[in-house]
Amino acid sequence: NLTLTLTLTLTLTLTLTLPLEGDGNCQFRALADQLFGHQKHHALTRQAAVEQMRKNADFFGMYFEDGTEFTAYLRDMARSRTWGDELTLRAAVEAYGCCAHVLTTTPANWYLVYQPEGEPLTSLPLPKDADAPRRGKEIFISYISPIHYNAVQAR
Q1: Is 101 marked active-site?
Q2: Which position among 26, 33, 41, 42 bears the catalytic label?
Q3: Catalytic annotation present for 41
Q4: DSSP labels for 71-131?
């Protein structure tokens, strides 16, 4: 059971998974929890990821057959309940300038690290009365392959 494997891994590393709603927004919920302290800000992390991909279309667009396919992907990804993927995770890391540690149920890649390589967005979508996360902030999420993300917290 992959969920049990991940739970054991998290237990052994002294962490706790914060279960998040499985509504198609789970990746963005996990990011919002780690960046802003609450999953309710998931629409903002989605918006930042999509905006980052739009602003860096040369990089993110290369993963698509053509510009039309990339444009359709961005349109779909901007909608609530569209599942996030590795591109949106990379884009969110770049947008917020954070370092994402991802614990997964995949034995060969049980621990992944995404570090920003470019400049964060200059105009970030943020919750009201919130400051932008500091550049280099470490965030921790889990991924139950291939369907669900959760936030990870220290005990």
Answers
A1: no
A2: 26
A3: no
A4: HHHHHHHTSTTPPP-HHHHHHHHHHHT-EEEEEES-GGGSEEEE---SPPPSS----TT-P
